[in-house]
Write a structure and sequence with these properties.
Layout: E1 12-14, E2 35-37, H1 40-43, H2 45-48, E3 59-62, E4 71-73, E5 81-89, E6 96-106, E7 113-115, E8 117-121, E9 137-139, E10 142-144, E11 147-158, E12 164-170, E13 183-187, E14 199-203, E15 208-210, E16 215-216, E17 219-223, E18 234-241, E19 244-250, E20 263-271, E21 277-284, E22 289-292, E23 301-309, E24 314-317, E25 321-323, H3 329-332, E26 347-348, E27 353-358, E28 365-372, E29 377-385, E30 394-399, E31 405-410, E32 419-423, E33 434-442, E34 461-469, E35 485-491, E36 496-515, E37 520-537, E38 550-558, E39 561-569
Parallel strand pairs: 1-3, 26-28
Antiparallel strand pairs: 2-4, 3-17, 4-13, 5-12, 5-14, 6-11, 6-13, 6-17, 7-10, 8-9, 8-12, 13-16, 14-15, 18-19, 19-22, 20-21, 20-23, 23-24, 23-25, 27-34, 28-33, 29-32, 29-34, 30-31, 30-33, 35-36, 36-37, 36-38, 38-39
Length: 571
């Protein structure tokens, strides 16, 4: 993840958020949208570099995207959208000047990318429609780079505050399968800074349909002599709790001694049906969460946060997250556990259970209460329902009453998801039935990776399977049977215990621990054997050095049978 920082001069390079003009009914379903992927070899060196224009003192560069990718974007022409647009909200006080806009384009044939027009427009404050008929700036046609950045000088003077601008690119009527068809670059597969809600499809009548799952790559540079604006909060996410919705974010660092440009407060905002941001509340910059007890409107709402400096001036905005008034069963058919965004709101589970739920909001976290007696074994696994270019990466952890992690399994992209196995221990002052808490979240912004940015996912569903094995049952659970042997692995957060049963004739048995990078950590066993075997990994490498907290892999080979288990170390 990139760091967002204010420069020591008046120049500010930042990632920002623009308010949204689409109606709430357009949100939530994420209808199919044309995507084209090109190989890295087709991208060319020009695209790998950012805009070559050199900023001058007084420049504010607004760019709402993370790392540009090798996926291409175009409007949904099948639904009669011919215009792709990026929205910019400029927090500067007038007068200021829109100096230029920059964005990368691409064609498969290598000829210049020709668009029907390029324009900068405002939106009607009453209807939210983009005023295509009265552009503030227009070039037609616009010829762009076949594989690289375009720098478009504008030098537009702005005399009013609170302005919202749309950079609009009108696509040709020719088939998109044409090798000369132009495309825009975007950030969608790995949105490391989250989504910003700045990308739109626009119809000929000016109706704007938001594409909140993607960030079209474009920047706008504004010039002002009115000083810096505060940098944005980061990592905005939210989760439903019993008394409302809890929003969490990371405020920008304080800059003591500076009157202008130093954030002292954080403001939470929501977007209404006309595309206007409305303030929900303002808190001191040292706080990192805010509770909204009642949502301000029905339907799916978009939320953002921004900083306010000592002079009362607002700055750039964060990534976005979504809320719904109750659950989103009309979309996915399951979310019965909500609200369960904190341990004290945990939804009870009675095992064995096969549960399907979803992580709707960016930053959504689900807690479930599980009762087990000392000596019982809690076995759980999680997997993603769905896929897409930005799928949920599930995180599964078992917590105690205080929220401390007992054991965790981290989802690995491309795998079936994390799993955990934990033997409940005797505890001082514990009741005969001990409550543990199952934690399920997307990896980004979770307790496992709190410094990363929560993401909005197209497919939000997950599946959890849970069972509790009583202590009086056979301790060796035959999780892998058939073939030449039986394997049981029990992990407790400090290491792993392994029990094997090699049937029939003697076979070569190998048990090795690897890191996530494939590096061999330790060999536990490597020789021929028959009958029952037991071994233990203490969480140390071959030099007896304790390995750090993280995810490791145990590979067991019994003859031609291969078994891989994920082990999480928690210190």
């Amino acid at each position: 993840m990139r760091n967002l920082a204010m420069s020591t001069t008046v120049v500010l390079l930042a990632i920002t958020l623009a308010p949204l003009a689409a109606s709430a009914s357009a949100l939530g379903h994420f209808p199919p949208h044309p995507l084209l992927e090109v190989s890295h070899s087709q991208i060319g060196a020009g695209f790998a570099q950012q805009n070559a224009s050199v900023p001058t003192p007084g420049d504010l560069t607004i760019g709402a995207y993370g790392e540009p990718e090798d996926l291409l974007s175009m409007p949904d022409v099948q639904q009669r959208y011919q215009i792709a647009a990026v929205r910019f909200d400029v927090p500067l006080e007038p007068p200021y000047t829109i100096a230029r806009a920059s964005f990368p384009t691409y064609t498969r044939s290598g000829v210049p990318a020709v668009f029907t027009s390029l324009s900068v427009c405002e939106a009607d404050p009453t209807t939210g429609r983009v005023l295509l008929d009265t552009p503030l700036f227009r070039l037609g046609p616009f010829t762009g780079n076949p594989d690289g950045w375009n720098d478009v000088p504008m030098n537009m003077a702005v005399a009013d505050s609170g302005k919202v601008f749309y950079l609009c690119l009108e696509f040709p009527m020719s088939p998109s399968s044409s090798p000369d068809y132009p495309f825009l670059r975007m950030d969608i597969r790995e949105p490391e800074l989250g989504q910003f809600g700045t990308s739109y499809d626009i119809s000929a009548t000016g109706f704007a349909r938001i594409r909140e799952e993607r960030n079209i790559v474009a920047t706008m540079v504004c010039t002002s002599n009115n000083g810096e604006v505060p940098p944005p909060p980061t990592n905005l996410g939210c989760s439903r709790v019993a008394d409302g919705v809890e929003f969490r974010f990371e405020p920008p660092p304080k800059r003591d001694g500076e009157q202008v440009g130093s954030a002292v407060q954080t403001e939470l905002l929501w977007r209404d049906g006309r595309g206007r941001w409305k303030s929900w509340g303002i808190i001191g910059s040292g706080r990192r969460s805010l509770l909204v007890e009642q949502l301000p409107a029905a339907g799916v709402l978009l939320w953002g946060a921004r900083s306010i400096d000592r002079g009362g001036r607002p700055g750039l905005l964060s990534n976005i997250t979504l809320t719904a008034p109750f659950r989103v069963a009309e979309f996915y058919g399951y979310d019965s556990g909500e609200p369960n965004g904190r341990i004290k709101d945990a939804a009870p589970l009675v095992p064995p259970i096969d549960l399907r739920q979803n992580l709707f909001s960016a930053g959504d976290e689900d807690y479930y209460a599980v009762d087990a007696a000392p000596g019982d074994t809690i076995v759980a696994s999680a997997s993603t329902l769905g896929g897409g270019v930005n799928p949920v990466v599930p995180v599964l952890a078992l917590l105690d009453r205080r929220g401390s992690v007992l054991v965790q399994g981290e989802g690995i992209p491309g795998s079936t998801g994390p799993s955990i196995r934990y033997v409940v221990r005797e505890g001082r002052g514990e009741s005969p039935n001990r409550s543990c808490y199952l934690y399920v979240a997307d990896l980004y912004g979770s307790i496992v990776s709190p410094s990363t940015t929560p993401r909005i996912h197209v497919d939000t569903g997950y599946r959890v399977q849970l069972e509790v094995l009583p202590a009086d049952q056979t301790q060796v659970r035959r999780s892998v049977q058939g073939g030449p042997g039986i394997v049981n692995v029990t992990a407790d957060g400090r290491g792993a215990q392994v029990r094997l049963a090699v049937s029939g004739q003697a076979r070569h048995v190998s048990a090795r621990v690897y890191g996530v990078n494939g590096r061999l950590i330790r060999v536990l066993y490597d020789q021929e054997a028959v009958g029952e075997l037991s071994m233990e990994w203490s969480g140390r490498n071959a030099s007896n050095v304790r390995m750090p907290t993280g995810v490791y892999y145990l590979r067991i080979d019994i003859g031609n049978m291969k078994v891989v288990r994920t082990i999480a170390l928690i210190h």
